[in-house]
Every structure is written in C-alpha cells, then in structure tokens.
Amino acid sequence: MKKGFVSLLLMFALLLSLSACAFTEARIDYVTDAANILSAGEKQELRDRAEQISDQYDFGVYIVVVNDYRDYVKGNIETFAEELFHSYGLGRRSDEAGVILAMSMNERDYDIYAHGNFGNYAFTDYGKKQLANNFLDNFRRNDWAGGFRDFLETSAVMLQKAEEGNPVDTFIPDPVERPRFNAVKAMMCLALGTLFGGGAVGTMKRSMKTAVKQTRAENYVGRGGVTLRTERDEFLNRSVTRTRIMPQNTGSSGGRPGGGHFGGTTISGSHGGSHHSGKF
Amino acid sequence: MAEQISNYQCPSCTGPLRFDGKTGRLQCDYCGSSFSVQEIEALYKEKDEAAAAAAQQAEMEPDNVSLEGEWGTGSDWAREQGLKAYNCPSCGAELICDATTAATSCPYCGNPSIVPGQLSNMLKPDFVIPFKLSKEDAVAALKKYYNGKKLLPRAFSNKNHIQEVKGVYVPFWLIDGTAEADMQFQGTRVTSMPQGDYMVTATDYYRIRRSGTVKFEKIPVDASSKMPDAHMDAIEPFDYSELKPFSNAYLPGFLAERYDMEPEACYSRADERAGNTAAEIVAQTVKGYSSVIPQGSQIRIRRGRVSYALMPVWMLSTQWNGENYLFAMNGQTGKLIGDLPVSNWRSLEWFAGIAGGVAMALAVLMYFL
Hints:
The structure holds two protein chains of two kinds.
Chain A: H1 2-17, E1 31-33, H2 40-57, E2 60-66, H3 77-87, E3 98-104, E4 109-115, H4 117-122, H5 125-140, H6 144-163, H7 183-206, E5 221-244, E6 274-279
Helix pairs in contact in A: 2-6, 5-6
Chain B: E1 17-20, E2 25-28, E3 34-35, H1 37-60, H2 74-80, E4 83-87, E5 94-98, E6 101-105, E7 112-114, E8 127-128, H3 135-146, H4 154-159, E9 162-195, E10 198-222, H5 229-234, E11 244-245, E12 255-257, H6 263-283, E13 291-320, E14 323-330, E15 336-338, H7 344-368
Parallel strand pairs in B: 8-13, 9-12
Antiparallel strand pairs in B: 1-2, 2-3, 4-5, 6-7, 6-12, 8-11, 9-10, 9-13, 13-14, 14-15
C-alpha cells in the first residue's frame, strides 16, 4: 500500500515537471525505448546487462530514448535527462548515484547525465567524452543496439576504474578486447603493398622506354608569341545545397573544470550532477 | 669530267680532314693542323661547285654517266636498287650509297667523302647545327644511360657490345606557324558557409570562352624516312642559338642524309604539336574556378616559313637475344634516348621486394598504433 502510494507520488511529480506532454512510461526501466528503435530481444538483452552492471557496482545505469524531448520538458536535452533522472527517483545509494544516457531521435540529441558522489567521480568530463566517442560511431550508422552495448560496457569499465581509485580522466581503454591485428588489416596491408609495388615497377618500366613521339611544342613558342583575344566569363546559374553539420560533442556547461569535489568533472545543474551532450 | 664526290684534304699534308665538334674546326689527324670552316670553305668552293654541277649533270643524263665497275654489273645493280655509285676521289674505289646519302666515308681507305650535289642548289640546307659531342661521348653516355635501370637484364649491360656508332647529320624541316585556339569551358565556383546547424554550399556555374593565337618558331620534324620519328622527337630540344648557315665543311667525318620526305608529308606532325600546345596555353588562362570542364574547341593552324636544317645525331645500335636496340643521342646537347629490354625476373624481384616491404611496414604501424 505504502509502495503504491510512493509510486503514485513519483508519477504525480513527474507529470508536474514534464509539462508539455506526459511521459507515457509508467516507470523508467534500465532501458526505456519510447521511440521503438530496438527489437524486443535487443531491449531485453540490454536491460539485463544494465541491471547486472547496476547491481555489481550499486550504481544505476540507464538508457532512455524518446522521439522528441520537447514533448516532455521546456529546455534542452540536459534539462530532460536531469528531470527524468530525478523525477523517477533513479540512482542507487543514498545520494542517488547513477548515470543516464538520454536520447531524442527527432533532432538526434543526446545527453549523458551522471549524478551522485560516485557518479561524478567515475564519470569525469574526459571520461564522458570518451564514453560518447565509443557509442557515437554506432549511432551515426543507426546501429542503436551496438551503440547502447558500447555505452554499457564502457560505463562498466569506468565504474571498475573508479572503484579501483583510478577514474578515467585522461585515457579510456577499449572495453572490448579486440585483436590488435586481424585478417582485414592483413588484407589491407597486402593490397596497399601490391598497389605500391605495382606502381613502382610500372614507373621503372616506363623509364625503360624513352623513345616517344612529341605531342607538344612549348619549346618553340616565340618570344611574345601568345596573344589572348577573347576572355569572357558568363554567369549562368547558382545551385544551393544545405547539409546538416554533425557537431563535435559539446562539453557540459556551467561550473569550471575540476569544479566540485572531483578532479576533471564539471558539476552543473540544480541537482549537483554533470552532463555531456551533443548530437549523434 | 669533274667528280661528283669530294673530300677535304689537309692543305699542309693532303691527309683527310674531319670536323672536330670540340674545337669547331677541321682537323688533320696526320699532321695535327686545324683549319676554320671559313678557310676550308674558301679553299674548296670551286671544287664543291664543280662536283655539284657534275652531280646535276649526272641526274639529267643518267645513262651517260660511266658507272661500270670492273665486272661491269655492279653499277647497273645499284641503279636498279635505287642506289648511287661514286668513285672515291682518294683511292678510286667504287662507293655504293643510298640515293639520299650526302656524306659518308670510303670503306676502303676510310677517307671522309662529301657528295656536294646532294646538298646544293634546291637541296641545300638553310642551317646546320654542328656536332659538339664525339663518338666517345656517345659511348660513355650510353653506358651511363644503363646505370640506375633496375629492370635491365644484367647480361644486357655486362655482355652486350655496341655494334655500331654513327654520327649522322639528320635532315629536319623547321616549321614556323601560328595556331589559333577558340575554346569553351564550363566552370564552377563553390563557396560554403555555416548557417545555424547547416552548412550551406553555393555552386555558381559559368560559361567560359577563351580564344587566342600562339606563334611557333622552328618546330623540328625529321625529314628522313630512314630515321625513326619517336627517336628524333625524343632527343629534342636542340639549341637554336647555335644554328649556323649551312656549309659542307661541317660534314667531313660524319654521315649525312638529304631529305626524302617533302614538307607536305611532315606538316601533320608539326600541326598536331602546335595545336595541342596552343590549346594548353589558352586553357591555362582559365583561373579562379573550383572546377573547369572543357566543352569544345576549334584549332586552326596557319603555316609560315619552312627552313631546312641538318641536325647532329649519334645513332648507336646493339643486338641482344636476337633483337636490335637502337639509341639516339643529340650530338649537340648529349640527350640520349632509346628503349631498353625489361627483365621479367628482375621486375618480379622488385615487385615482391617493394610490395612485401610496404605491407610489412604497414602491418607494424597498424599493430602498434
């Protein structure tokens, strides 16, 4: 009865804060896909992994995808992520430690919002940027599940590092152990080698044939022998194309680098969290 | 009857004279005397004129010319083959030459001989560029040419011997003219600037027209059907500042040919070169565009004066694996050209070496980066 009452209160609070349109999800799961970009199987797989990481580090790791964040809040994607995180009471431990990746498909906005002492410690500005780099390449290919897997695995590595007292602040290892050299790279090397070898031997062969007919006579142009009679450039028409700029990730706003208690993390917003947002 | 052929003898010892490219004088190898071209010209003017007249007479009355050799058939055969027979003024031996030969040497006594009739009157060249480089220079240049040719079969440079080295004055037409080029292009100018979240790219299209004239002076085209065109083209350019009025005195010691291709047969080669170059020069005036695409062109050639000149060329030939290899060196500038054989095995070695090396280097880079 008490649990139900608390849920009702949370729902009410969220409805108040998400002013424009109510968030239709009854609750925020570890992975919430309101834009339907994931298959059921992918959703389940990602939820299981997010829950596993959250349990392992006692730290909430969430993914929320909506069609347009403006349907829920007035403000920007950072406001959306922050409101979502706190309205639904996400996070673990007493200080609501957690990280959320909020994505809005309409304008391809994303925000990583980390909260709590451990959240801000583990997810430094540099760390969040690296984290974003790891999933943005997938998103740019519309490989949503792949990008979310990278987000979860990289988050796990960052949490592990933070637990060891060495948060990712200057360098992030590739969370997935990949072989340093593989068959594709070997083929590339061979192909380029063949190209260079063929080109070089072709050039050498050409140098063996020097008896060639002349097709030019520039050596025989008389002094002052060039007279230009007509020089006309006539404008015909103009065509204009507009291409969407894929901006570099923008750092979190407000505060100063190294602000708060944690080196390399800029604290911003009213709840003491930190952001990293941009477009994918 | 005057001889149709003459040789220049040393006024001091009557030994044969030869033109020496290094000194630019006629040299006697017997007594060491040397004479300027002008001195020898003055000395032999009358003799050359008489020889030229005799040649002209022989051309007009071929049947009256006594060409019978000891066996009575050699000269008849020569005439049937389109060759010409002369008597060496030094030893009296019969010289069988091509109909276009203007200078040669007697195979019996070795004396340089000139056939003035081949290069006189209407056939007299306007200019000559004298040889500056010697036979030894040509042989050294060929050996140097082999150096650094990584695909040359080793046996070719090690075992092969130059079979023949000939210094030849090759007849060239030097053709003046003007090329008029009228060309149309389509050009684009592209500008980009950010506007909000978008990059706006504007492409302006232009119709471009250029026309102009390019004057050419003395485009050389070899006028001998015996000389391979590619070889003669490839040894260009000659330094025209050393063009001299023609004189037979530059010929002793070298072979010389008179032209056997009329200018009309050579115009197309000069026209093509002039047209290509004019189009290139006019096209280069189109500037300031992001891209330029040719849309059409009209080239008109107006030919001007045609001069006749003899140019110095060293021809070197060699044989290897049953094939002849011919090289030509510009006797004035030393530029040597010629096609060389390619060793398939060495090609494979180099290909494997370079391809393997590059692949390995890339593999190491990819592994560590």
